[in-house]
């Protein structure tokens, strides 16, 4: 079964979860139900911007697994940054998810307005104090964004969820996060949902068909996706592979019966080429409030 990681909030998070970006409400409901009921997942990662919190909510309502046994993450969209707007957006997410608390509430992007960002963080700190989010954190924060929160004083994020895979291992973010007890979560852990990438400077991604990964997969009689997921787990990262297909959802959690060797891990480390599938956080301003 999936190991837990203890966050600086004192709560625990299953190290492997299901991502649902780009899935419709119906696809999400099905995928989450299958993941929880059939495949044994206990961690679901959604976002207001994905437009599928209701699908997650329907799955949570339909499963017989108790709410407290499932770790639910959602994220504050860019257009809701600011103090009052963040508090309101959090209530909307709770309603759509049909739950009275969130396990982990994240700022989706830092954007480029540090003052507004700090007011947003004030709101997340208040939400954490109220207990309606068991933990709060951030996504796509570079070390300079984390430093803003360190300099502010007060609550630090429990996690920083960033694009992270063997092409983009994010060593600078990982060491900054480690210094402050912040766990790192990998998004697009398999290289993302689109081969072409979606950021202004992103590169085509081919990790799932990479010959280095394939060779290691053959060595273990596992799939490329399973090898990539093990690389994240053995690097101490929280990993949320996305799929809406039952067989892949099941395959992606069937990774606790083998281990990558030090040689395997170092071969995968040679794939670092800095290529992103998404936007660099410093060039992301979609939906920014004016
Ligand atoms: P699908 O939902 O159609 O299965 P990410 O890196 O963001 O987690 O994206 C994973 C992408 O790879 C998704 O497009 C997903 O598509 C696909 N995928 C997920 N699991 C597997 C797998 N085990 N084998 C092949 N493709 C996968």
From TrEMBL:
UniProt xrefs under SUPFAM superfamilies: NAD(P)-linked oxidoreductase
Residue ranges of every copy of the NADP-dependent oxidoreductase domain listed in the record: 16-272
Classification via InterPro entries: AKR, Aldo/ket_reductase_CS, NAD(P)_OxRdtase_dom_sf, NADP_OxRdtase_dom
Record PROSITE patterns: ALDOKETO_REDUCTASE_1, ALDOKETO_REDUCTASE_2, ALDOKETO_REDUCTASE_3
Keyword tags: NADP, Oxidoreductase
Pfam families assigned: Aldo_ket_red
Keyword hit for Endoplasmic reticulum: no
Superkingdom field: Bacteria
The protein, known as: Aldo/keto reductase
């Amino acid at each position: 079964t999936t190991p837990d990681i203890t966050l600086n909030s004192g709560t625990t998070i299953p190290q492997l979860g299901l991502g649902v970006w780009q899935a419709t409400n119906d696809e999400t409901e099905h995928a989450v139900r299958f993941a929880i009921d059939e495949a044994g997942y206990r961690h679901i990662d959604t976002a207001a911007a994905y437009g599928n919190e209701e699908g997650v909510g329907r799955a949570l309502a339909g499963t017989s697994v108790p709410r407290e046994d499932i770790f639910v993450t959602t994220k504050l969209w860019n257009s809701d940054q600011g103090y009052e707007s963040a508090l309101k957006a959090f209530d909307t997410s709770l309603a759509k998810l049909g739950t009275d608390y969130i396990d982990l509430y994240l700022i989706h992007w830092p954007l480029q307005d540090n003052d507004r960002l700090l007011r947003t963080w004030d709101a997340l700190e208040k939400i954490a104090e109220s207990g309606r989010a068991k933990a709060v954190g951030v996504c796509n924060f570079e070390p300079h964004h984390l430093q803003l929160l360190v300099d502010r004083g007060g609550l630090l994020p429990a996690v920083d969820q960033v694009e992270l895979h063997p092409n983009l291992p994010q060593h600078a973010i990982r060491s900054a996060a480690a210094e402050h007890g912040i766990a790192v979560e990998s998004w697009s852990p398999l290289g993302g949902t689109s081969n072409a990438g979606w950021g202004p400077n992103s590169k085509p991604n081919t990790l799932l068909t990479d010959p280095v990964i394939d060779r290691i997969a053959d060595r273990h009689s596992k799939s490329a996706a399973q090898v990539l997921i093990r690389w994240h787990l053995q690097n101490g990262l929280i990993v949320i592979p996305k799929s809406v297909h039952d067989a892949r959802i099941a395959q992606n959690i069937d990774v606790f019966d083998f281990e990558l060797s030090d040689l395997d891990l170092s071969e995968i480390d040679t794939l670092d080429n800095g290529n992103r599938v998404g936007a660099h956080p410093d060039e992301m301003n979609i939906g920014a409030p004016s």
